[in-house]
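Chapter review. Work through the record for Glycosyltransferase family 2 protein before attempting the end-of-chapter questions.
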Amino acid sequence: MKTETIISKQLYSLNDNTRSIEDSLSRSIFRINSKSSKKVVDRPSSPLGFIVLIGTFIAMIAGAFLVYKLQSDFDQFHIERINSTWGFPFLVLTAILFVFQTGVFLYNLFLYLRYKPIPSVTDDLLPTCTVIVPAYNEGKLVWDTLLSLADSDYPEQKLQILAIDDGSKDDTWYWMQQAKIKLGDRLSIYQQPVNKGKRHALYRGFELATGEIFVTVDSDSIVKPDTLRNLVSPFVVDEKCGAVAGNVHVLNNKKAILPKMLNVSFVMSFEFMRSAESMLGSVLCTPGAAAAYRNTAVFECLSEWINQTFMGEPSDIGEDRAMTNMILKQGYHVLFQRNAYVLTNVPEEYTGLYKMFIRWGRSNVRENIMMAKYVFKDFRNESKFGARLLFVNQSLKIVMAFPFLIFMLFFIVIHPLLFLGSTLLSILIVSSFPVLFYAKRYSLADAFWAYSYSIFYTFSLFWITPYAIITANKSGWLTRGLSEKKIDKVACEI
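Structure tokens for Glycosyltransferase family 2 protein:
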């Protein structure tokens, strides 16, 4: 017991020593992202980052050169494929899917151009709001999260902040207590006796909440001062609004290469895709980093949500996608607020990243199955076309995962150079839109990471969707063990 106390004190001391550095970094990133979304922010790249970007362009140029030099081989390959028993049907299917995907993209572009976030309503119109922050092994990050929420431009008398420690094994509870000391009655903290999972921590928060609107914020995320008011304003304007998704950016995008790539990917995913989905009233997933829910919509499905199972096993992943799905099923609109910014931490290493994607992939498979049960029924009075189109698009990506994986492996075995060249050239063409999109919204220098991310995902994460499909019945957070390993490593070093 004495040894544990000494280690705990040393951990706290270590956190205190690094706190000023982390605070400085968080505030710097926060200030950058708090500026106008139209403003260009050019930041110097690290030597490694510069090398990765140069390597990316060399690879894509080499791919284009291969396609040019091997044009006759390409022609011969296409002829052989068309004349084969399976080749022509596959070619027809590919053409149909290409036309469909192109049509969906153009439709999304049309919707995006029409999208405008709902401006914040006045203080007197703002509803009462409860913010729930579940935390597990987040350490000092939870302090930053809670203080950023307390600094929100939201009437104090209408704001309730709850933090739930889900049986953490590090100093998360200590930092919650420190936040409680600083914020007083503005913050209520609770501790789960054992780690039950994020869904159960949120469930406890929902039961304790008193606000008309429930907001969930991850304990490794920081919000802007106007995030909360922007996030909840749609509920005032649209009485059919049941949930709202926030605009997620990467907080630690200065620390490693992967967060740089993911930041560009997140902007495309949220500011383009969710803007289009919002115009259809059918955002498919409200992110755990920052999401808002009408309390009546939550209570309507809370029992089903906490007791959700898949193939007979309790669901302990995808709680955000599941909640969104159940609220859509009730006939509510689910919207996106581009002006509700939240900065969140993402994995900096490959292991953490692929485990996060596996978790998301499994949730996507499960919730698409659930959505299939109601999306073609009369689940809402308004138009159901948008929700159905999004469902079909998502389902096609899942259904075609294995056929395209088999074709890719066949292509690699038969014509490796043709595969390499065509893939790299395709990345150059297809990823140019995310590059232009990010450059228009933020920074040209950072926009080029979209190319690097596409190459990285294509060659090192292509297996995620097929693997998530065949293991969709498996549970587990996957990345939580990584945090525990880091704690053990720090304790050993001390």
